[in-house]
Amino acid sequence: MSHFAIVDENDVVIEVQRIAQDVIDTGAFGAPASFVQTSYNTRGGIHYGEDGEPSVDQSKALRKNYAGIGFIFDRARDAFIPPQNFPSWTLDEFSCLWEAPTPMPTDGKQYEWDESTLSWVEVVPLPPPDDAP
Fold it and tell me: What predicted TM-score, i.e. pTM, was given to this entire model?
């Protein structure tokens, strides 16, 4: 069995299922053309092994990213592309992932993107309530 994304008439992923190709071919679960195989172990155009490390055999990388509901299947790129995070973010052609205009800091702190300032803003945890045990 393999993982397949089910795409609508606009190539938007509406469901992801683990199903056998011969079952899809029967048409019992919808038009076979609406099922597009996706690789559970592919992210950003790289196939990863069960150990989380990039696979030696990158021919297993399939359609850039494992499909998710709301992703677009771009037939020209043969890739699943997630929804765009923010209007200022651009699509990386290799990974088919969205990238911020500036890289997120890697200093171990937690950040979130602020579209109004086009910058990363540190997330400051809220203090515990006064009545916390």
Answer: 0.86
